[in-house]
Amino acid sequence: MKTIKIILGIITALILTFFLTGLVIQEVIYTNEVQINKPVNEVFADFQNVELMKQWMPEMKSIETLEEKPEKVGSTYKVVVENQGRLVTMTEKVLAYNPNKRITFHFDAESILKTDDYVFSSEGNSTKIIQTTTSTSESYIMSCLLPYFKRKPRRISQQYLEQFKKASEAHN
Questions:
Q1: DSSP 8-class letter at 11
Q2: Mapped to the 3 state alphabet, what secondary structure does 20-35 carry?
Q3: Which domain holds residue 85?
Q4: CATH code (residue 32)
Q5: What InterPro entries does the database record attribute to this sequence (predicted)?
Q6: CA–CA separation, 114 vs 37, rounded Å?
Q7: What is the C-alpha separation between 165 and 158, in angstroms, rounded?
Q8: Does 9 fall in a domain?
Q9: Three-point CA angle 64, 69, 75, nearest 5°
Q10: Is residue 97 part of a domain?
Q11: Confidence band, pLDDT 50/70/90 cuts, at residue 51
Q12: Is residue 110 one of the residues assigned to a domain?
């Protein structure tokens, strides 16, 4: 009987810890970076090239303009990506746009809210991109899960940056 109480106590503690995670940790933030051997103006143009995007982000199946603003900020797009054999539709909104310096996107994808802020800096004849990602969720259960699965999205984001580097450096 004592063993059962100990096991139930441990299970209860784990469940409480899981549910408290969603209250304590409201967002997950991580940073990635890459150095590209091209001038910043060319890298920034490559970054927005939809055809090139399909090379470095092969999971992206389509991108459709919903609303295009003259200064880019506030523009919205419908993005369809394949995630583990399933098509996921996201809404992408441009939050910041400063040519050759910064572009910030906000994604709303099935209760996951993600903001990707890309800062471009010139370093001689090369360009450094620093990506800061902030993820939150509209769902309490997903908020509890996000901190435990932070490494995989971070690794995927770094992989995308590395793939972008290869595609951009190969692009004329």
A1: H
A2: HHHHHCCCEEEEEEEE
A3: 27-170
A4: 3.30.530.20
A5: Polyketide_cyclase/dehydratase (IPR019587), START-like_dom_sf (IPR023393)
A6: 28
A7: 11
A8: no
A9: 45
A10: yes
A11: confident
A12: yes
Angstrom distance (rounded) from CA 100 to CA 27: 28
pLDDT higher than threshold 90 for residue 161: yes
Average pLDDT taken over every residue of the chain: 89
- Residue 167 contacts residue 52 (beta carbons within 8 Å): yes
- CA 153, CA 161: separation in Å to the nearest integer? 12
- Total residue length of the chain: 172
The phi-psi region of residue 64 (left if phi > 0; otherwise alpha if psi is between -120 and 50; otherwise beta) is beta
pLDDT score for 104: 97
**Residue 19, both tokens:** 């549910």
Whether the pLDDT of residue 140 is over 80: the answer is no
Write the pLDDT tens digit of every residue in 68-127.
999 999 999 999 988 888 888 999 999 999 999 999 999 998 778 899 999 999 988 999
- Give the number of domains in the chain: 1
Residue 50 belongs to a domain? yes
**78 close to 87: Cβ distance less than 8 angstroms:** no
pLDDT in tens, 149-160: 778 889 989 999
pTM here?
A: 0.85
Amino acid, res. 19: F
Burial 86-98 (b: 16+ CB within 10 A, else e): eeeebebbbbbbe
Q: Tell me the CB-side half-sphere exposure of residue 143, using CA atoms within 13 A.
A: 14
